[in-house]
Specification:
This protein is α+β, with helices and mostly antiparallel strands and about 400 residues long. It has 2 domains: about 200 residues, Cytochrome Bc1 Complex, Chain A, domain 1, CATH 3.30.830; about 180 residues, Metalloenzyme, LuxS/M16 peptidase-like (Cytochrome Bc1 Complex, Chain A, domain 1), CATH 3.30.830. Helices cover about 45% and strands about 20% of the residues. Helix 1 crosses helix 7, helix 9 packs across helix 15 and helix 11 packs antiparallel against helix 15. The longest helix is centred in the N-terminal third of the chain and has 19 residues. It is globular. The termini are far apart. About 45% of the residues are buried.
């Protein structure tokens, strides 16, 4: 079923992808802004605000917010990423209005109580400390710092201790007021929901949000670089990254298939060679992360410290070998994995709402599952090999925790 997309006069998008037979509805407010829009002095403000709105909004305190959604058997949550902040809820279709009103209160009428703000800072500092003490988490932050040297996109989503402690109540209000502009906002729903009804609801709850200009976002440039964190852990964790492609780039389907074949599953070259054949890694995987203006192809590994250098060297060799010798069978297996993952992810209202919002963010339209499948099926073996070869032509980024590695192969 084709999604229905409306735009309010202030520029906000309302998108509905009904799911026949569903009793529940998933509704989310997806805002195309995240940590890469933060000034350095306010690093982590996007994540802090995401936490703080749940401490009281509209006529409800934190307990009343929780009770309001759970009284109807629903749930309400949020996340913050480098390029997106989302507030989403799930309930039975009859409770759509309540979910929408709660989400509207979170971003339009948060309390940002001073006492709650100071308490929540301590919670986030604990979260930051846990992340820093978790090598499989911190290695990815180090990787972004190395890949995008000195740029906002390279800084951690959680911020740092100084920036978190310095954030004020006024900073929180200004972040929402300046960054959450209507043309960045998508209210997307799937499940038991009527498009016209949600459009009217959106107009009532968000139609009077001022249509302010969209703040500029710093362009990203993959620089490559090295970060070594030599603290002692039981294992060494390392990541290797190459420049990727922007989300809407026509070469993205071919690159995604190459990365899937390289390290997307237990049948992949990386897993079979490093773990199964040589026992060099406890875990080994590859991923392709895309943004509006750039991308990153990464390989992550947990390995014995004494063999970390051997493991990363072999991983780099396998990128080259796969670019040269990816087989038709490997490509077809990768295609089947990606098609299945896509289609299975669209079997739930939440998956469909998430997909619809991201599609509008990237392509400014509903990119239906059938079209995405067609794009994957159109990739030839030579296309996937060429996509892999492009990775080898640019700079690399390496991050390691628990060992010391070098940029040179």
């Amino acid at each position: 079923m084709t999604a229905e997309i409306q735009r309010l006069a202030n520029g906000m998008t309302v998108a509905v992808d009904p799911l026949p037979g569903a009793e529940s509805v998933a509704l989310g407010l997806y805002v195309k802004v995240g940590s890469r829009s933060e000034p350095e002095a306010l690093g982590g403000i996007a994540h802090l605000v995401e936490h703080m709105v749940f401490k009281g909004a509209g006529g409800r305190d934190t307990r009343a917010l929780a009770e309001a959604i759970e009284d109807v058997g629903g749930s309400l949550n949020a996340w913050t990423a480098r390029d997106q902040t989302a507030f989403h809820g799930r309930a039975l279709g009859r409770d759509l209005n309540l979910v929408a009103e709660l989400i509207a209160d979170l971003i339009r009428a948060p309390h940002f109580d001073e006492e709650h703000l100071e308490r929540e800072k301590q919670v986030i500092l604990s979260e930051l400390g846990e992340s820093v003490d978790s090598p499989d988490d911190i290695v990815h932050d180090h990787l972004f710092e190395a890949a995008f040297e000195g740029q906002r996109i390279g800084r951690p989503v959680l911020g740092n201790e100084a920036s978190i402690l310095s954030a004020s109540r006024q900073d929180c209000f200004e972040w929402l007021g300046q960054e959450f502009v209507p043309s960045r906002m998508i209210l997307a729903a799937s499940g038991r929901v009527d498009a016209d009804a949600l459009g009217r609801l959106a107009e009532r709850l968000f139609g009077d949000v001022p249509a302010l200009p969209v703040p500029a976002v710093e362009a990203a440039r993959f620089t490559g670089g090295l970060r070594n964190d030599r603290r002692s852990f039981e294992q060494a964790h390392w990541c290797l990254a190459f420049p990727g492609l922007a989300a809407a780039d026509e070469g993205t389907p071919a690159l995604s298939l190459f990365v899937q074949a390289l390290g997307g599953g237990t049948s992949s070259r990386l897993f079979q060679e490093l773990r199964e054949e040589r026992a060099l890694a406890y875990s080994i995987y590859a991923w392709n992360q895309t943004f509006a203006d750039t991308g990153l192809v990464g390989i992550g590994c947990a390995a014995d410290r004494a063999r970390a250098a051997e493991a990363i060297s072999l991983a780099r060799d396998l990128v080259s070998a796969t670019a040269e010798g990816l087989s038709a069978a490997e490509l077809q297996r990768a295609r089947a994995q990606m098609e299945a993952s896509l289609l299975m992810g669209l079997e739930t209202p939440q998956g469909r709402a998430d997909h619809l919002a991201r599609s509008i963010e990237v392509f400014d339209r509903d990119l239906e599952a059938g079209e995405l499948v067609d794009q994957l099926r159109a990739v030839e073996l030579a296309d996937a090999r060429a996509a892999g070869a492009t990775l080898l032509a640019g700079p690399v980024a390496i991050a390691a925790v628990g060992t010391r590695l070098a940029l040179a192969a």
